[in-house]
Amino acid sequence: xxxxxxxxxxxxxxxxxxxFAHHSPAAFDRTKKVTLVGxxxxxxWQNPHTWIEVEVPDEKGTLVVWxxxxxxxxYLIRAGWKSNIIKPxxxxxxxxxxxxxxxxxxxxxxxxxPDGRELLERPARLGxxxxx
Amino acid sequence: MxxxxxxxxxxxxxxxxxxxxxxxxxxxxxTEAAYTPTAAEVAAEKAGTLSALAPANLAKPRPAxxxxxxxxxxxxxxxxxxxxxxxLPPYPKLTAAAQKEFDASKKYDAEGKVYKDDIGQCWPAGxxxxxxxxxxxxxxxxxxxxYMISGxxxxxxxxxxxxxxxxxxxxIVRTYNGESIGQWQGNELIVDTIGFRGDHxxxxxxxxxxxxxxxxxxxxxxxxxxxxxxxxxxxxMIDPDNWEGEWKSTKRFNRVVDADIQEVSCLPDLNQHLQSxxxxxxxxx
Lengths: 132, 285
Fold this sequence. Notes:
Chain A has helices at residues 2-15, 73-76, and strands at 34-44, 51-57, 63-69, 91-98, 105-112, 118-119. Chain A is of the alpha+beta class. Chain A has one domain: CATH 2.40.50.140. Chain A has a 5-stranded mixed barrel. Chain B is α+β, with helices and mostly antiparallel strands. In chain B, a hairpin with a 4-residue loop joins strand 10 and strand 11 (230-238). In chain B, the strands form 3 sheets. A 9-stranded mixed beta barrel of chain B has the order 1-3-4-5-6-7-10-11-12. In chain B, strands 2-13 form a two-stranded parallel sheet. A two-stranded antiparallel sheet of chain B has the order 8-9. Classes of the chains: A alpha+beta, B alpha+beta. The A-B interface holds A 13, 16-29, 42, 44, 47-49, 51, 53, 67, 69, 72, 74, 99-105, 107, 124-130 and B 74-78, 81-82, 84, 109, 112-114, 117, 119-122, 133-136, 152-153, 205-207, 226, 229-230, 254-256, 258-259, 262-266, 270, 273-277, 279-282.
């Protein structure tokens, strides 16, 4: 539990800025987390952003499509992702930092797969000099 | 008698072979060292249009450069997590027009909104921001030019080293990365860039929107430091339409040895699936 928290904190620090994005990350509220329990509608493995669309029932049971933004596959691969790790119809739990406007959109924090595995985005090793 | 003749003959043969070998080596050295330009290259040289990748241009004798920037580089954020931004102290004094944009971006940022994120709408980042985007930058150095391809939207930047001058003002094609001419000076590469587009072009974003205009003029001093592991670039930037005097900044980039750039494009349907870019957080007026 402590290690997971440490990793989450490191992720937050590393990804709080650019996160290999093409757009400003300021749209997201990094102080909030929303947990989406739903079904994968579509998963796109691509640059500059991988994305997942998840159908999540709202409080009335109406399905809402949430857009989840991730980083480049270059870095997801290093965290154990594959291009076929999820597919439409899979039940997933995804944690996101939501967009500030309250619309169903967020930036990825973590995902729990149907088999219980938890996936993160790997913090980039780039941006720091080689240790001597 | 026969034996004596044979030895003399053998010696003669050896001497002839040695002489032939010496001539052959000298000839091949001469032909390898001197490149004969084609008629097309001669014409291009005369017209001032000889390509940086034309064999005749590459073959010109030039002093060996003090360093080679060939490699993948990534902005160093280990000393300052905000180093990928440009609007950091010391701050230039903004003109009224630029201050208006800056103040608007700060206001909207405080409200949790994003002001004029043109890059997020697939406009090029342009110089200087393309250098510090949080993506690797591939650089390939030839004697005549340095080709830079950013991992970010595969933006291309070319620094010409072959002695050409900037294009004349009445023919220059304005771009987001500008037109760069480089000159070696001691242990540094001095790069002079002009010819920028002044629309949808920003010096920074995220609550620090400072416009970049057509009068933007950037001088970079490149050097390799830290035993070849880092590239350090001093920026001196002027744009009288947007700030007073010189805006200076130094950026360090780390050599990346475990990743390559890939094809990264701002495809027409990209933002349809990245809803934050079209959400109510975005302000464009």
